[in-house]
Design the sequence.
């Protein structure tokens, strides 16, 4: 009986964490990024597009153990929200950050 209770608790906890992780993928944010103010410049207009950005195209090959046709390095992603205006956020060291740069996702230029 104890094993059944432990198994159910493990299933409930990991199930909730899985649902939360999928919800974050659909919004295209990480756990740290959702604590920052402002809009996400990497977020597409639909949840399906956000999911495809992470796992690639969803077709019949998705369920087969094949190497992906197009591989990214995992560190560079398309910025789709550059047209959105970012809020001006004052920083303690540098004054205000302009609309071209967001403190949430770093500066847009070097």
Sequence:
């Amino acid at each position: 009986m104890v094993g059944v209770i432990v198994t159910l608790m493990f299933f409930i906890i990991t199930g909730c964490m899985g649902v939360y992780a999928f919800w974050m993928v659909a919004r295209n944010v990480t756990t740290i990024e959702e604590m920052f103010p402002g809009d996400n410049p990497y977020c597409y207009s639909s949840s399906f597009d956000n999911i495809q950005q992470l796992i690639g195209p969803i077709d019949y090959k998705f369920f087969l153990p094949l190497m992906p046709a197009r591989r990214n390095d995992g560190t560079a992603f398309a910025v789709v929200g550059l047209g959105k205006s970012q809020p001006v956020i004052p920083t303690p060291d540098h004054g205000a950050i302009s609309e071209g740069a967001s403190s949430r996702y770093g500066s847009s230029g070097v």
